[in-house]
Every structure is written in C-alpha cells, then in structure tokens.
Design a protein that fits this description.
Elements lengths: L2 H22 L1 H6 L7 H24 L8 E3 L6 E3 L17 E2 H7 L4
Antiparallel strand pairs: 1-2, 1-3
Bound molecules: zinc ion.
Zinc ion binds next to loops.
Length: 112
C-alpha cells in the first residue's frame, strides 16, 4: 500500500468518526472548549466534517495502488537498472524504450 492511500484512509476514518462524535456526543467534545451547542450548530459542524470525511474515503477508493520499482530491465537490450536512476523509467541505451519491473519481467518471461 502506498503512503498516500494510508493517509486518505486514516483521515477519512478520523473525520467520519469525529462527525459522529460531534453529532451524538457534542457535550463531551465541545464541552471541553466551554461551548454549548444546539442541534443546528451540531449539524453545522458535523455535516461538513462528514462530507470531507466522505471525500477522503472517495480518494482512498479511487487512488490507484502504485508499486515501488527498485530494479528494472529493458525488454529490448536486457540491461538492468536501478529504477530511480532512470529518467521516467526509460532505458539509458535504447531510445524511448520503457524499462519494466524486473520481478514482473521474470514472472512473465520464465525461460530467460
Ligand atoms: Zn535498452
């Protein structure tokens, strides 16, 4: 799992939980700040919190998991590279050839 996805998940859980707590236990949360709130004010705080929480949940669901590539191989010249030393993952020797994750490469090309 990449870190952005974890961030979205944690944020959305925290926001959804807070909106629930604010709405149902407002005296506990807001009482700490010496505030007294009526139902309208509760909604005014809880609803936006809930919506932002849903937004982060949506981001969590739609963010694509991106695998970190350490070593990659050029399918053309079979040269291997440290992926983070390449420009956009292109082979240093071949023109405009994308290198591929070395683990994935050997999974699909077992005979080599
Ligand atoms: Zn190459």
């Amino acid at each position: 799992m990449n870190s952005a996805k974890i961030y979205y998940l944690v944020t959305s859980i925290m926001l959804l939980l807070s909106s629930y707590i604010i709405y149902f236990n407002n005296n506990i949360v807001l009482g700490m700040y010496g505030m007294t709130v009526d139902n309208n004010e509760k909604l005014f705080i809880a609803v936006p919190t809930f919506i932002v929480g849903l937004f982060f949940a949506y981001k969590f669901i739609t963010t694509k998991y991106k695998k970190q590539i350490d070593h990659s191989i050029c399918p053309n010249c079979k040269e291997t590279f440290n992926y983070n030393e390449l420009k956009n993952g292109k082979c240093e020797y071949c023109e405009d050839i994308d290198t591929v994750d070395i683990e994935e490469y050997y999974k699909t090309n077992k005979e080599e």
